[in-house]
Design brief:
elongated; single chain; two-stranded antiparallel ribbon; mainly alpha; binds arginine
Length: about 475
């Protein structure tokens, strides 16, 4: 080890006479959060070390010592016996410093042809890739839960809403499959992000590349990357992979929040469409009758911090000149926090949805309000009487007005009452006014007829599971 005074940083303090101020250490250190990169950091070092040996840059024996030291460090960290030190700033220097304690001076050879700049970029790409793989599995299993519900309740009628007003009858299965599509696109966005992020910064060194005869293909493929990044400046400066991850996470949690909001509404007694299980309900400390949907409310609220994470990294990156800037150390916490909270939210939603009971009677009873088959009546006037749709819409409005005044459903009006509005109406009109007729008439591609929903569930299985 080269000589250094005992106050300056042991890793880079060669030209420093004094150590950092305590506040400087606090703002500079990232070890409290970047220790989560330990496994990726060690994997990157293993790949780099093997390459250095293969290229004859480091001797076989030093290489062996480094690899065995890294292995011990991995064990120490996983057994919780590793001591993380703030004075060593970050995960990279904590590991390298421990390596020196374990194997001596050979440790100093590991950082040949490498910088923390390409190292940290590599680590975070690897970490994000793992996070994406985990989220993909979780979203897939949420989709499976929803598809099963859709299969079981392909024919359970409920009001479909626009403006949260009863619009037309749909089936519960159809409604669940709408979310299956959204989560499918979310998975697609994560997969796109994964494709673009899967190239290796390692070997870019500080910013300009290196004079050592390294083999970047070798380290890239050892770490499962598709290829090395083409430009060394870009390799150490790019964080758009993290932005893309956070953007995909934001859209995904927005979808989750919409479904969470519907669970909140539907389990309220005023709707009563579903009942959450005891396992996913909470009580009130003062009102003994309460069953609160806290998990759904929290899923709805998680949007705040995840959108915030995207915004926060966008602001960090905006206007940053090339290449590395310490600003970029602020990339990790938003990525970790968003990934953790998205994963927890997906798990909670899957748990809640897998456990809920639907109340088909209440859903069907809700169809008695708001004249949800009015469009079917208008469509009949168009189809059978050849009325222009606008006129049919007008006539139907008048018939709805009659039913409203009488306080009855459309099908409870008499034929002559309807004929007062549109003289051509025949008895056949009653065949389209029932909820089931309405649902099953909507057999256009992507529509809600029971047969369609069964087919759509089967196709969703094929496409997503
Ligand atoms: N902890 C740093 C980060 O997260 C590692 C890279 C430090 N590089 C440097 N040139 N100081 O970004």
């Amino acid at each position: 080890m080269t000589k250094s005074n005992n106050k300056a940083n042991a890793m880079w303090g060669g030209r420093f006479a004094a150590g950092p101020d305590a506040i400087m250490s606090r703002i500079n250190a990232s070890i409290d959060f970047d220790k989560r990169l330990y496994a990726q950091d060690i994997a990157g070092s293993v790949a780099h070390c093997r390459m250095l040996v293969n290229q004859g840059i480091v001797s076989e024996s030093d290489g062996k010592a480094i690899l065995s030291g890294l292995d011990s460090i991995l064990n120490e960290i996983e057994n919780d016996s590793f001591e993380f030190k703030t004075v060593l700033e970050d995960i990279h220097m904590n590991i390298e410093s421990r390596l020196r304690e374990l194997i001596g001076d050979a440790a100093g050879r590991l950082h040949t042809a490498r910088s923390r700049n390409d190292q940290v970029a590599t680590d975070l790409r690897l970490w994000t890739r793992d996070a994406i793989d985990g989220l993909d599995e979780q979203l897939k299993s949420l989709q499976e839960t929803l598809i099963k519900l859709a299969e079981t309740h392909a024919d359970a009628a409920m009001p479909g809403f626009t403006h949260l007003q009863p619009a037309q009858p749909v089936t519960f299965g159809h409604h669940m499959l709408a979310y299956v599509e959204m989560y499918g696109r979310d998975r697609g966005r994560f997969a796109d992000c994964r494709k673009r992020l899967n190239e290796a910064p390692l070997g870019a060194a500080a910013l300009a590349g290196t004079s050592f005869p390294i083999d970047r293909q070798q380290t890239a493929s050892a770490l499962g990357f598709d290829h090395p990044m083409a430009n060394s400046l870009d390799a150490v400066s790019a964080r758009d992979f993290a932005l893309e991850f956070l953007a995909a996470a934001s859209i995904c949690v927005a979808h989750l929040s919409r479904q969470a909001e519907e669970l909140v509404l539907w389990c309220a007694p005023q709707f009563g469409f579903i009942r959450l299980s005891d396992a996913y309900s909470t009580g009130s400390s003062i009102m003994p009758q309460k069953r609160n949907p806290d998990a759904a409310e929290l899923a709805r609220a998680k949007t705040g911090r995840i959108f915030g994470a995207l915004q926060s990294l966008l602001v960090v990156m905006k206007g940053l000149p090339l290449a590395y800037g310490k600003d970029m150390q602020e990339d990790k916490e938003p990525v970790f926090d968003a990934a953790d909270n998205l994963s927890l939210t997906v798990a909670a939603m899957a748990g809640m949805i897998g456990d809920l009971t639907i109340v088909p009677e209440t859903m069907r009873a809700a169809l008695e309000h708001g004249f949800p088959t009015a469009t079917d009546l208008a469509d009949w006037l168009v189809r059978v009487l050849d009325m222009p749709f606008r006129d049919a819409h007008h006539a139907t409005g008048a018939i709805v007005g009659l039913a409203e005044a009488k306080g009855c459903a459309l099908a409870e009006l008499s034929l002559s009452e309807m004929q007062d509005v549109a003289p051509g109406i025949t008895d056949d009109i009653f065949s389209v006014l029932s909820v089931d007729a309405s649902i099953n008439s909507r057999s256009s591609e992507g529509g809600t007829s029971v047969e369609n929903v069964r087919g759509a569930a089967a196709s969703a299985r094929e496409r997503f599971l």
